[in-house]
Specification:
This protein is α+β, with helices and mostly antiparallel strands and 252 residues long. It is 36% helix and 23% strand. It has helices spanning 4-27, 29-34, 45-56, 126-139, 145-155, 168-174, 182-186, 224-234, and strands at 73-79, 84-98, 105-117, 157-163, 201-208, 211-217, 240-241. The chain has a 7-stranded antiparallel β-sheet with strand order 6-5-1-2-3-4-7, with helices on both faces. Strand 1 and strand 2 form a beta hairpin. The longest helix is centred in the N-terminal third of the chain and has 24 residues, at 4-27. The protein is globular. The protein starts with a helix and ends in an 11-residue tail after the last strand.
Length: 252
């Protein structure tokens, strides 16, 4: 009959085997899939938003797929102090020619392209659409530039284009504003007496024939930021899915 010490010694291999089984179970793929990641794991919405902004919301890149031509006006809407990317659009002159070479007619048109976070039903603040887009990317584990580019469309990013020249609801907003001196003098008395806390900010940049101007601020009455929002709304019936390569796919 084995002594107590011998019993413990004989059970030692079983204990080691049990411990090994627990280790294998704890590291198996099945177990990992059943345990969701902690909410604190991975980058924050702000960090994801900054990657998305750099990859997707730079209006200067919206016409790159046509040989790198640059727009003359860009606008970017960032929500809250965290700069959540809501939309960005760009305007560019196109020279359109029709007919045979002997009887060819040419005219200019203004083309618009936009990236935006898909609007939410009954949303009260534009930034909510942006946080929903970023939250969906985070849920999918899309943290790197390559992974974000792969998931952006399914996560709610929209890539749109419109012919401004043939959009009657938008034409009247564009033509009177195509001059750089509009930016300083139109907003002299338009700033609110008390700026809102955590205000959404719109940045508008204009560059044409050597004239440049830039505005960045809240959507104040009479400001370029308000004008940019009005133009986006006026173009709503004219936006369509863009046929050009999305900026986050250029070069991939």
């Amino acid at each position: 009959m084995p002594m107590h010490g011998e019993t413990v010694k004989s059970l030692a291999p079983l204990c080691r085997l049990a411990a090994l089984s627990c280790t294998i179970a704890a590291t198996s793929p099945v177990h990992a899939q059943e345990t969701p990641p902690l909410e604190t794991e991975g980058p924050t919405l702000y960090e994801i938003g900054q990657t998305v902004k750099a990859l997707t919301f730079d209006g200067r890149r919206f016409f790159e797929s046509e040989g790198g031509s640059r727009p003359f006006l860009t606008a970017y809407y960032g929500g809250d102090d965290y700069d959540y990317p809501v939309y960005a659009f760009a305007l560019k002159y196109d020279w359109i020619c029709q007919g045979p070479q002997s009887d060819r007619t040419c005219a200019t048109r203004i083309a618009a392209r936009m990236v935006r976070a898909a609007e939410l039903p009954n949303e009260q603040r534009p930034r909510w659409a942006a946080t929903a887009l970023l939250g969906e990317l985070r849920r999918r584990g899309a943290f790197s530039r390559a992974s974000i580019a792969e998931h952006l469309s399914d996560a709610g990013a929209q890539w749109l284009e419109a012919d401004v020249s043939s959009c009657p609801t938008a034409r009247h907003l564009i033509l009177p504003r195509l001059r750089a001196d509009w930016f300083p003098f139109e907003i002299t008395d338009a700033r609110p007496a008390l700026l809102p806390m955590h205000a959404d900010t719109v940045t508008v940049e204009y560059s044409w024939n050597g004239a440049t101007a830039r505005y960045s601020g809240p959507v104040a009455e009479g400001s370029p930021a308000e004008w940019a929002n009005q133009l986006v709304s006026a173009l709503e019936p004219c936006w369509k899915a863009a046929e050009a390569t999305a900026p986050w796919k250029v070069g991939r």
